[in-house]
Write a structure and sequence with these properties.
Layout (H helix, E strand, L loop, with lengths): L2 E3 L8 E5 L3 H6 L6 E2 L5 H13 L2 H13 L2 H12 L4 E5 L5 H12 L5 E3 L2 H19 L1 E7 L5 H10 L3 E3 L1 H5 L17 H13 L5 E5 L4 E2 L2 E2 L2 H8 L2 E6 L2 H12 L5 H10 L7 H12 L3 H18 L10 E3 L3 H12 L3
Helix pairs in contact: 2-3, 6-9, 7-15, 11-14, 12-13
């Protein structure tokens, strides 16, 4: 017998299967879910067009034909997963036709699966309800500092030492800066971002959580008001370091990817509304001539640092830690935390 299960009641050994198309899955899904699509992106588009413009019955017939070709593979994949997990939970967009039909098919073959009630939409409603609740329970400590201070690496080291963190830039897959997407790919969707923030808050072992100071926007992501407002009222640790140290960190981080030079050039071209044509041309020439250190320092002094200074005094508490290593920063922070 088919059984619907709500996301909040999931516990123990289970695996979530997103049966939506690969495009839907890549835009946002439930963290940890794997994708076994019934329709690919092209099939979904064609069936949807027929459903709206021609005939519901014709669209259903097309869906049956497209899905039938994949059923042997899906059946084998689900059976393999059942050997590893006690519960296999399917979901689609709204807990509707795709997950229901597949669940019914598997059930008819004696394969016990669960269907997520409400699908992704039901899960999203749960996140919208629970993320503000988690946010209210925690006490944030904000790491503040100029670009290049290695604040993300400080967060990671604090996590290794057993402290709780939320890596907002990691959740967004964007560094929140002028060239914030270089070397790391596409920015996450808003829905994916909020899901990842929820997961990190849910996994905490206490209510003290470290965050990096951010503006309200990180790439295409908008930090929800309830989180951002709480961040503005939180205790802050101001981390400082000299320009050479910061420039080295920036260069090490931004030149990791194979196509870093092309990505930096593309990013600079996208900044013409913020930077004069004359300076853009000069910066592009510096990239081509390998003057990356000089370019990095100039961008930091002229653009990054002034933006930081506009907001650096808008908080109540601070500890200035002038550092040149991640370990030193974390040693100072841990001593400070003991006094909270």
């Amino acid at each position: 017998m088919l059984k619907d299960i709500e996301y909040e009641n999931l516990e123990g050994d289970y695996i979530l299967i997103d049966v939506r198309s690969e495009g839907e899955y890549s835009e946002y899904t439930i963290p940890g879910a794997i994708n076994i699509p019934i329709f690919n992106d092209e099939e979904r588009k064609e069936i949807g067009t027929v459903y709206v413009r021609e005939s519901v019955d014709k669209a259903k017939s097309m869906g049956v034909e497209a899905a039938s070709k994949k059923l042997p593979y899906i059946y084998e994949k689900i059976c393999d997963l059942q050997k590893k997990y006690k519960k296999v939970v399917l979901f689609c967009a709204r807990g509707g036709l795709r997950s229901t039909v597949l669940s019914t098919f598997l059930d008819s073959l004696g394969v016990k699966v669960y269907k997520l009630k409400g699908g992704y939409k039901g899960y999203r409603a749960y996140i919208n309800r629970e993320l503000p609740v988690l946010n209210e329970k925690v006490q944030y400590v904000i790491l503040q500092g100029n670009t290049g201070m290695g604040k993300t690496e400080i967060l990671k080291e604090l996590k290794r030492r057993g402290h709780n963190i939320v890596d907002l830039e990691g959740c967004a897959n964007h560094r929140g800066s002028l060239l914030g997407s270089v070397g790391i790919g596409k920015c996450n969707s808003q829905k994916a971002f909020e899901s990842l923030v929820y997961e990190q808050l849910k996994e905490r072992n206490s209510d003290l959580v470290f965050l990096e100071g951010e503006s309200k926007r990180i790439g295409n992501i908008i930090i929800p008001d309830y989180i951002y407002n709480k961040m503005r009222e939180s205790k802050r640790i101001l981390v400082k370091g000299d320009l050479d140290y910061r420039a080295k960190n920036i260069i090490d981080e931004y030149t990791k990817g194979e196509n870093w030079k092309e990505e930096i050039i593309n990013s600079l071209n996208n900044l013409r509304k913020y930077i004069s044509e004359e300076n853009i041309a000069r910066y592009l020439n510096m990239v081509e001539n390998g003057q990356i250190l000089d370019l990095t320092k100039e961008l930091m002094v002229k653009y990054y640092d002034p933006m930081y200074k506009n907001g650096e005094n808008k908080y109540k508490y601070e500890l200035v830690a002038e550092i040149n290593s991640i370990k030193t920063a974390c040693d100072i922070i841990e001593k400070w935390v003991e006094g909270i």
